[in-house]
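Dear Dr. H.,

I hope your travels went smoothly. While you were away I took the liberty of generating a structure for the chain from your last submission, since the lab meeting agenda had it listed for discussion. I wanted you to have the full record in hand beforehand rather than looking at slides cold. The sequence, exactly as received, is reproduced here:
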Amino acid sequence: METRPTPQKPSKIPLLTALCIFFIGITTSWADEPWVVATSHPLAAQAGQYILQEGGNAVDAAIAVQLALNVVEPQSSGLGGGFFMLIYDPKKHHTYALDARETAPQRDTNDQFVPLSDPSQNGLSVGVPGTLAGLVWLHKRWGHLPWEKLFVPAIHLAQQGFLVTPYLAQALKSERLKKWEDPLHSPYFHQGRPLSEGELLQQPELANTLKLIAKDQGYSFYQGPIAHAILQTQQQSLHGLPGIGRMTEQDLISYHPVWRNPITIPWGDHEIVSMPPPSAGGIALQQVLLALQPFQSIIDPITQDHLTIEALRLALIDRNQQIGDPLSMPPGTLKTLLNPSNLKERDQIIQPNKTFVLPAQNSLNEGTNTTQFSLVDRAGWVVSCTTTIEDLWGSGLRVKPYGFFLNNELTDFNITPHSSIEHSAPNDVTPNRRPRSSMSPTLVFQNQNWSMAYGSPGGLSILSTVTEATVGMLMWNRTPQDVVTQPRFWVKNTQGDTYTEPLMTTTELNKLRLLGHPLTPLTLPFGSIQMVGENPLTHQRWGLADPRREGTVLMGY
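The corresponding predicted structure, in token form, is as follows:
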């Protein structure tokens, strides 16, 4: 049982002095060929800074950033989750795609969630975690600094503590955390109440876990004492309700990440690279660009947004019906989904002055508590990573006495089976398969030179956020700062139900409604693009951090 340490003033991460630009909020920084780190939390950015100053490369820094995010954003990502990552090697001019997404245990079945009123808050929703295995693979292939060195910032933050930020303070008030945590013996509570903004959060259990993993390179996580604790933890459900997890020791031992061939999209003198299935991101991005190609001359921003919404609706048809783990998709599916001839006839339904009508599809579930970081090192290696434990605090299950939360990623599968005798359903729960995702880390190249790396958290909203940004920059001539800071929309389903951010004006909303769009204004923003880039001609590098969270850009030499 963990007791809360005596509060003390947090010490700083042992960073070397650097030439860097550090802002929180809307951050735009420029310099000639430095390293650049853009993350959703300043202390995670500092972790990347520390590693790069110590002589580490982009992969080393990415590992350190992910470990630090587990500490400072425990509600969004960490050891109990999974990630997608793109890595660009400038010497080989090649982009690698690593899938470290969670998998369904061997004993899972496609109807397991049907009897549950809330499938997301129990052990049955927990997928076999992939984050740590992915980090180990990355380090073995490209790591430069010793493995233990990469844990220094995260261990320091967990042990010494850090001050709760506004974004974390809001998450600490969630009902999910209150349901599972003992407020008298949880590091996230003080005297029975959630920690508030500005209070010190120390996580000694997590610090000890990170120390152990730093020494054994993850062995204890998949085969040792941490593995046993994971199995015990996922055999829980709220108030004795159904939902006990089915993960076994063999599921943990047999987990492995997968190298995948990224989706590559030619677009004039640009090339866009994004994640393939089980991500729907790359496919949706290519389908939307092809659908909008006839409308490149449109200059009215409202019409541009209208057309993008319509194209996303069509992309959601295939996302919902045909995308899942590649092992569950019929042969040739990817080729068919990206065939311009097949898409051209369907895309003719898009009109610049009205919406089209589509039949309703099943509603979708996908958690929004994800995080994104992007970085480039001095040598030009680039990383874009979207990482998650699915919902806010994942399943709500914290592995004790190890201090990290388990995902509820399996709720990204179809809750009710969609398969029948006539057709298969690639996203039905299937043993050893990965659930479909919207996570879309993305790279852009211009004239074969790397230009930008970015992505966003936000569950189902990721497709809209990343697509809107990409189309805005490459088709509608919007600047990177425009697409990071301007109000967004989120196309929720094929019928066109669309959420909008608070800063979208009444005039803009009314114009879209006149075109037939059913809009629901939200009181909170969504998404959080973290972007780094380089001017292919001048080689001047820059970074942008989204103001919607505690976005931060750090740069240095």
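Two observations you may find useful: Residues 262-366+446-556 form a domain with the Serum Albumin; Chain A, Domain 1 fold (CATH 1.10.246.130). The longest helix spans residues 301-322.

With kind regards,
E. W.
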